[in-house]
Amino acid sequence: MPEVTVAIPTFRRPQGLARLLDALARLDTTASVAVLVADNDAAAHEGFDLCAMMRDKGYRWPLRALIVADRGIAAVRNALVRDALANPKTQFVAMLDDDEWPSTGWLDALLCEQAKTGADLVQGSILFQFPQKAQAWTRSFDGLADIRGASGPVAMPQGAGNVLIARAALETLAQPWFDPAFGLGGGEDLDFFTRLKAAGGRFAWSDEAIAHGDVAGTRVTLGWALSRAYSIGNSDMRVFLKYRPGLGERLAEGAKIAGAFVLSPILFAVLAFDSARRADMLRRLWRAAGKAAALFGRRYNEYAVTHGE
């Protein structure tokens, strides 16, 4: 029977956390499960208090909560991993964000794919739910478009939401697992994956391990989506620069950025009657702008603002 700690970072989303905990209580699984929540709001600690209330009411799984005073998603993820590994029985750490919730078969699907592939990290698919019918342009934007893939080995995961990580893989890496330099700007997950891959880590995808993601009303705007694209470009470039790429790699990345600046406005005009493809051209342009800003030392702190409840 696999021993799994489900690790949840939370910050000022008590309603989302309650929905997630309720969904975890309905899991159909043969695994031995423990749930660990890390609340990054040391002042109000609504997530911490919610866990205490649900535990007192007889929550299905062992449920513990921490308060992490240091701001940033990297600090929270590090606290979760550290606490989970302190239990020698923990074989896997599964991570879900507080605006996600799993299907009943989610955990066993992740474990099944891990057993099949021997992967150090398995990611599941995320299907987003909107407050109203999604517009066509949302299909190309991170944080709005569903994240899916064919089950089996993959070269690189697509974020730290809905992942299962083997204990041995975490013990391979030096602490901190998630670089605090990316705590508010994002990119801590890509940096972690990059380090794990360099250490020989293998990745897989399970399309059957479905989690659902909530899209807050404040996100269903082109303005938010473009800010998100800019943020991803900014954090991706900061991760790229962290590992001191050679001149050839820098020139290749610079050529991609220049190409986006030149081609995206032209294609935007050419695709005048296709709103979805026009929006995708804007996404590419904003992502290139985020990368260019990072080249000049500018950091965009996307996670300084919380969306949803």
Structure explained in plain terms:
This protein is an alpha/beta fold. The chain has two domains: 3-216, Spore Coat Polysaccharide Biosynthesis Protein SpsA, Chain A, CATH 3.90.550.10; 222-304. The chain has helices at 14-25, 46-56, 73-85, 106-117, 167-172, 188-198, 222-242, 247-270, 275-295, and strands spanning 3-10, 32-39, 63-67, 92-95, 100-102, 121-129, 152-154, 163-166, 203-214. Strands 1, 2, 3, 4, 5, 6, 7, 8 and 9 form a nine-stranded mixed beta sheet that branches. α7 (222-242) packs parallel to α9 and α8 runs antiparallel to α9. It is globular and about 60 Å long.
Compose a concise summary of this entry.
By secondary structure, the chain is α/β, with parallel strands linked by helices. The chain folds into 2 domains: 3-216, Spore Coat Polysaccharide Biosynthesis Protein SpsA, Chain A (Alpha-Beta Complex), CATH 3.90.550; 222-304.
Q: Give me the number of helical elements.
A: 9
Shape: globular
**Tally of distinct domains:** 2
How much is the average pLDDT? Answer: 93
The main β sheet shows up as:
9 strands, mixed
Strand-residue proportion: 15-25%
Q: Please report the total strand number as a whole number.
A: 9
Q: Can you identify the CATH class of the largest domain?
A: Alpha Beta
Topology pattern, helix = H, strand = E: EHEHEHEEHEEEHHEHHH
Evaluate the radius of gyration: 19 Å
Which consecutive residue ranges, at least 5 long each, have pLDDT under 50? none
Q: Report the span from N to C terminus.
A: 35 Å
Q: Please state the structural category.
A: alpha/beta
CATH third-level topology of the largest domain: Spore Coat Polysaccharide Biosynthesis Protein SpsA, Chain A
Q: Considering DSSP H and I runs of 4 or more, what fraction of the residues is helical?
A: 40-55%
**CATH architecture of the largest domain, please?**
Alpha-Beta Complex
